[in-house]
Amino acid sequence: MAKQLPPGQFETESWPILHQGDVYKFNEADWSFRLFGAVKREAELSFSDVMTMPKTVTTVDMHCVTTWSKFDTTFEGIALREFLNLVELEDGVSHVKIYGYMDGDMFGYSANLPLADLLGDDSLFVSRWKDSGREWEDLSPKHGYPLRFIPPESFYLWKGTKWVSGIRFMKHDEAGFWEELGYSMSANPFKEERYR
Length: 196
Known about the structure:
Layout: E1 10-11, E2 33-37, E3 43-45, H1 47-51, E4 56-63, E5 68-79, H2 80-84, E6 95-102, E7 105-114, E8 124-131, E9 134-138, E10 148-150, E11 164-170, H3 177-180
Parallel strand pairs: 1-5, 2-11
Antiparallel strand pairs: 2-3, 4-5, 5-8, 6-7, 6-11, 8-9, 8-10
């Protein structure tokens, strides 16, 4: 089956590095991952807690709002649905905000997403990757080590939070970092939803 290039995009075999703020310097002793918001009881996980969770391997296409698309990148990570097993959601949860470290702030970066679109194998918190030109390797710090969220291909990649630090469960949609600066709330590359 032929790959579908969204409008306004070009194909690349490289994985360009783009991010806001400084590259996060991982320190396992200080790192934690929070599940909070509209839940009956919040949870805080250590790095070892997260890394011992069940893993999923999936191959996805990535589409960046800066107009590049990279097909067939394989990731190993934890499906978002696995985190749902650790908390009991309140009634009416419809969206999440996925946070990441930015410039020393554990919650300095965020991206909003509808929860219903994130329950498959293509919605992963990843630590390793490979493609046709390389074997398995850990994410580099610039790509989001130790853990990065990779969204389904129906979202531009700015929804793929680097250096993730938690998930907030919400009963309504709420703008994240780039959305507050005028980017699309829904960010579908096939509809070219770049800006509001």
